[in-house]
Amino acid sequence: MGVTIRQIAEAAGVSRGTVDRALNNRGRIRPEVAERIRKIAKEMGYRPNQLGRALSMSKNNIKIGVILQSAETPFMHELLKGVEAAREEVDSLGGTVLVYKIPHISQSDTISAMELMREEGVSAIAMVPIDEEKVKERINLFVEEYHIPVITFNSDVKDTKRLCFVGQNALQCGRAAAGLMGELVGGKGKVAVISGYSTNTSLSNRVLGFQTEVEKRYPRIQLLGPEYCYEENPRAEKITEKLLEQYPDLKGIYLTSHGEEGVCSAMRKYGKAGKIKMIANDFMGKNYELLREGSIHFLIGQDARIQGYEPVMILFRLLFNGEEPERELQYTEIYIRNEYTIPEV
Amino acid sequence: MGVTIRQIAEAAGVSRGTVDRALNNRGRIRPEVAERIRKIAKEMGYRPNQLGRALSMSKNNIKIGVILQSAETPFMHELLKGVEAAREEVDSLGGTVLVYKIPHISQSDTISAMELMREEGVSAIAMVPIDEEKVKERINLFVEEYHIPVITFNSDVKDTKRLCFVGQNALQCGRAAAGLMGELVGGKGKVAVISGYSTNTSLSNRVLGFQTEVEKRYPRIQLLGPEYCYEENPRAEKITEKLLEQYPDLKGIYLTSHGEEGVCSAMRKYGKAGKIKMIANDFMGKNYELLREGSIHFLIGQDARIQGYEPVMILFRLLFNGEEPERELQYTEIYIRNEYTIPEV
DNA sequence: CTGAAAGCGCTTACAG
DNA sequence: CTGAAAGCGCTTACAG
Questions:
Q1: Is the pLDDT of residue B54 over 90?
Q2: Sign of the torsion formed by the C-alpha atoms of A26, A30, A34 and A35
Q3: For B157-185, what is the mean pLDDT?
Q4: Cα–Cα dist A92/B1, whole Å
Q5: Strand D nucleotides in reach of protein CB atoms, 7 A cut-off
Q6: Which one has a higher pLDDT value, B218 or A27?
Q7: Residue A56 CB closer than 7 angstroms to strand C?
Q8: Helical packing angle, A260-269 and A233-246, nearest 10°
Q9: What is the pLDDT of residues B55-93, one digit of tens each?
């Protein structure tokens, strides 16, 4: 139990309101008095009680908006749990979180979601953006004209006024895969890259990070691809079959995105499952299962929950305490898992 | 802004105190009334506001004690940051956290720390225990006689009445290392194990997990050791030199504990650094540096902060909300890191 | 068994 | 510029 505003008021011989004005620089107070009160507060080691503060400010009702893209995917589903956790916390501190889920990826839906949020009176927005000019402009409009701070998460848009980004460093993720693959195949042989979409920046960056690092560190590895499977298993299967036909001595496969079942069933068909070293991404779908049975050797992944939780809490801390985020790019942990580090539950 | 107790009181035509008694099963209320109020609350979607609750209960001042062993080590230093984070959070919710740091490992100091905590009136204790009969007895005494719940963290003591354990599954940690080593050396060749102390359960379990898994999964790997370096670099260096002399074809080294500098300088002396595959534990000391320069291939580690943070928060949730911990053994994430996944800062 | 009132620590109109 | 008072949502003696 610390020092309270009342104790300071008594010590200074003023009212509690006056102490409040002094300590929170609200003006309407004689500077000398303010100074004296601040000094006393400091001497007494005053630290404001967040509970009292939050409770009394809960009338103001801080409102935070969250906009998700591709809300139907397993990853976003997991991420949403993080958003929900943050929502409960914000809720219990007297705030509100509004979530808008866009099922697929749509520029117009994104913009109308932003407008909806504004009409609802949110004081800040955390969103998965789209890399389109109109969306970028709208973000800048919100930040500069409406003074509604915007945080991007999961994927980022460059050259906007967004406050910060929370998500994976995709380039580094590809590099980590390169380091693993290098060791797995003993630094030489043919290694194929299979990706999801050529248009997705995160995925292209994983590919790029992988390729450049392999070339740099393991010059005796021969890179094949990237081929694109559009995260569809049948396509991934066909691509893999073709690779296995064409390169019977294939040593490794790096899959940047989903399609793991297709790849593995092709490898199984050719008796190569477990023999060809395979690295895949994310802890969704059949990935853990395939890791357990030995078809996948390593999984690289991100903490989806944190990606949902942090952006909301960063905004809340900003609005509630005026705490600015520590850095502009908040890269989340890159997890490496083998079959022995699969979490329970 | 959710439904408040006042709104329920109005809807039910009773006082707020009565609603409180109904919703929190405090007795002194006619069962039918209680039932009716609970029903109304449910219909209205009532969720208690933690702020109001916490503020009004902050008179009671929940007090949690934390006892650390070997508080001078880098790991404990990091863990302490997690404790401090929890302390701030508990503090801002009206509670208090008392920390007692035991510099080395001492049975008598542990027991007197526990007694001190009790005199200070803590309502629960989170502690790094020692696996000694007297300490175990004292834990049981606290739980059963004094009704002070005890959580162990970082290391556990079996067969006590402690509420739960938060820390690493050391056996699994050794297995994860085995899986990595198997891939690194291509499933065959001589691999040495160097450990810290034969008397430390965590370390012995890492060794055991490593050995049994290697034997099972990679029968063509020939295991050497374990040798014990007492976490001292000179000893680790001598052990490694001897190994390199005796087994010029050594393929890998698994170091369960500190001594990394000694091992690496011996390897360097023999021109083997980076050639012999090395796996080490924990993200302390020179480990990241050696990972970057390529002498260490993988690091396996635990999140020290979480190990400090969680036990305190589990106790707080228990005392404040009556939330029981979800499970008895709360194993923390086993992190695998290569040079590409070293966190910034 | 139930209600009215005070209080937790802070903020915020409203007077003066 | 300053103070007195009400209020945030909950809990808790104290009466009855």
A1: no
A2: positive
A3: 96
A4: 10
A5: 1-13
A6: B218
A7: yes
A8: 40
A9: 998 888 889 999 999 998 889 999 999 999 999 888 878
B15: number of Cβ within 10 Å: 12
Inform me whether the pLDDT recorded for B1 exceeds 70.
Answer: no
Say what the pLDDT of residue A93 is: 80
Cβ atoms within 10 Å of B341's Cβ, excluding its own: 22
For chain B, the residues whose C-beta falls within 8 A of a C-beta of chain A are: 1-2, 47, 49-52, 54-55, 58, 61, 91-94, 96, 172, 175-176, 178-180, 183-184, 186, 213, 277, 297, 331, 333-341, 343-344
In 10 A of CB A145, how many CB atoms?
A: 8
Mind listing the domains of chain B with CATH numbers?
5-44 (no CATH), 62-167+304-332 (3.40.50.2300), 170-302 (3.40.50.2300)
Rounded to the nearest 5 degrees, what angle is found at the Cα of B262, between the Cα atoms of B257 and B267? 110
Mutation target to probe the A interface, by most A beta carbons within 10 A, among B120, B338, B344, B345 is: B338
Q: Of A260-264, B42-46, B244-248, where does mean pLDDT reach its minimum?
A: B42-46
pLDDT tens per residue across span B259-311: 999 999 999 999 999 999 999 999 999 999 999 999 999 999 999 999 999 99
Compute the distance between CA of residue A283 and CA of residue A335 in angstroms, rounded to an integer.
Answer: 10
Question: Nearest-CA neighbor of A333 among B260, B312, B301?
Answer: B301
For A72-85, what is each residue's pLDDT tens digit? 888 999 999 999 99
Check if residue A60 sits with its Cβ under 7 angstroms from strand C: yes
Backbone angles phi, psi at B258, to 5 degrees: -75, 165
pLDDT at B207: 98
pTM greater than 0.70 (yes/no):
yes
Distance in Å, residue B16 CA to nucleotide C5 C1': 11
Nearest to A121 by CA among A66, A67, A62, A57: A62
Q: Which residues contact A242 (CB under 8 A, 6 or more apart)?
A: none
HEC states along chain A? Answer: CCCCHHHHHHHHCCCHHHHHHHHCCCCCCCHHHHHHHHHHHHHCCCCCCHHHHHHHHCCCCCEEEEEECCCCCHHHHHHHHHHHHHHHHHHHCCCEEEEEECCCCCHHHHHHHHHHHHHCCCCEEEECCCCCHHHHHHHHHHHHCCCCCEEEECCCCCCCCCCEEEECCHHHHHHHHHHHHHHHCCCCEEEEEEECCCCCHHHHHHHHHHHHHHHHHCCCEEEEEEEECCCCHHHHHHHHHHHHHHCCCEEEEEECCCCHHHHHHHHHHCCCCCCCEEEEECCCCCHHHHHHCCCCCEEEECCHHHHHHHHHHHHHHHHHHCCCCCCCEEECCCEEECHHHCCCC
Indicate the residue type of B276.
I
